[in-house]
Every structure is written in structure tokens, then in C-alpha cells.
Amino acid sequence: xxxxxIHHIAIICSDYGRSKHFxxxxxxxxxxxxxxxxxxxxxxxxxxxxxxxxxxxxxxxxPQRPTRPEACGLRHLALAVDNLxxxxxxxxxxxxxxxxxxxxxxxxxxxxxxQDPDGLPLELYEQ
Length: 127
Fold this sequence. Notes:
It is a single chain. The chain has 127 residues and is α/β, with parallel strands linked by helices. The chain has 2 domains: 1-61, 2,3-Dihydroxybiphenyl 1,2-Dioxygenase, domain 1; 71-127, Roll (2,3-Dihydroxybiphenyl 1,2-Dioxygenase, domain 1), CATH 3.10.180. The protein has helices at residues 16-26, 84-93; strands at residues 8-13, 30-37, 42-49, 52-58, 77-81, 102-103, 110-115, 121-126. The strands form 2 sheets. It has a 4-stranded mixed sheet with strand order 1-4-3-2, covered by helices on one side. Strands 5-8-7-6 form a 4-stranded mixed sheet, with no helix packed on it. β7 and β8 (121-126) form a beta hairpin. The protein is globular. The model has no long low-confidence stretch (mean pLDDT 90). Pfam families: Glyoxalase. It comes from Leptothoe kymatousa TAU-MAC 1615.
């Protein structure tokens, strides 16, 4: 078996409009396709970000995330950036709280964490 790349990341949001704005307007992901799925009463928004795709879903009354990133399963989504300081300034301009910058002890690279509108942990990792 040979895996070529990660094709997409699926995210379920609680407020579709708020999350659509966050991912497309604030993070700058390009909208590929937006689909209303009547039978599921759900939107599916395909977004292009970097070399990957995000599928943003809205379902009626999705359950809350059970715990912080240390629970089993997906811990966080890391986004590679060229200039961490510019990205932090951009997020703070949009009133998004960003954790203090850390340095990866193995690579010496700077990184930080912030959250999407539903509390999903996102990381900015400076290349």
C-alpha cells in the first residue's frame, strides 16, 4: 500500500455561517463547492487550503467535543505558515485568542495554538 497525501480533513461545526466565515474569510481557505443536503438538513462546504481540502459539515445539534486535545483521536490540525508573527497579528486583529509562541525542542521551529469557533485546536507551525 502506498499513500500519496492527505486528501481532506472533515470538520463538523455547530454554527455553519460562523465557521464558514472563519475558515474562508479569516484563514483564507478557498471555497470549492457548497452543497445543501436536504435529507440530512446539512451543509457540506469543500474548502481548499494549502495542498489539502477541508470538508466543513453542519449537522443539527452535533454533540460537543468531549475533552481537550489529550483525548484519544485527532489531537489538532497543524497549518504550515511562512511568517508566524504576521499570522498571529492577523488572528488577533479578528479578535481570535492565540496562545503564547512556543519553540519545538526537536526542530527549533516556532509554533502556537488557537481555536476555531467550536473550540477545535488549530496550530500554526512556522516553516
